[in-house]
What does this fold into?
Amino acid sequence: MEDRIGFLSADFRPTALQEDALRRAFGGSGAAPAAALPDELPFEIAWLAPLLHERAAWRAGEADARELLVSAAVDYERKLRGARELRRRLAAADIECLFFKGLPLAAATYRVPAERPMTDVDVLVRPRDFAAALAVLERGGCAVRPPTPDGTHAAQVAWGGIPFDLHWRVSGICRLDLGERLWTEALPFDEKAGRLVAPAPAHHLAIVLCHGAFWSINARGVWVADALALLERHAALDWNGVRDCALAPDVRLGLLRCLDYLADRFGVQESAAVRAELRAQPVPWFDALRDKAASLAPPTRTLRDRVVLRFAGVLARDRGQRPATP
It folds into this structure.
């Protein structure tokens, strides 16, 4: 658990091969991609194969890439239909929902949906509606696994073989609280069978960066592709909106480090003013200590580092940064 309790995982950066592949797909600053892409399809970039096939004219392992591309396209349509039905059931009970990360990014941000494979569908309801939403879905025949008691993970809902993560906040690891603006500024990404909505681009970018910084055990590389796709699609992104999201004390260092990485490796210099403002903010000593300990790779952590991370996790819970199930 140390990586997830820590302020920032040491593994928030993609691997060298993932970064090389992402720079072929999106471009980047600094040195050119290191070498030719491998003929075989390595496991660590398998999820990038559709993206590379579409954008980087990668023809090595073309049969595998095409198979993954078709599979991702079929899976997207299936999950989109499931999301429409989920929204319909919640709307019938006067419960508003919002989708974020994989599904809406595939639908409205990437060039084609198949560029963004996904394992599940993330859906958000207001905290006051969370228990009612679980009850509605359970009565409708969905298999429901309750959220973890400490609030670090959402409830898992399976309907029609489609896995959904039902959230009452966009992150259970850090205090990224967008308030009512998240709902009032949400935008539609699918108009069929009712409106499916997603966060505004600036809010969505902050969520993606938080996912990379605080949950990167499972998101290495994915958050970078999502962030670059958002910036590619929304050239006039509201960086003030990103700054407003990043000013929460326990969010600031993580988002700053992700923005620094994007600026250094992919030339995202539009964030310069935001990064300067975040650096100028005072950092509480416990956040700085937690960040330093968490930035060490697990094999190099001393007993002191592990104690710091445990203490920081308890302190974060006491400060209300990791809410229990509503």
In short: The beta strands are 97-100, 121-125, 143-145, 155-159, 162-167, 187-190, 196-198. Residues 1-7, 314-325 have pLDDT under 50 and may be disordered. Residues 2-318 form a domain with the Beta Polymerase; domain 2 fold (CATH 3.30.460.40).
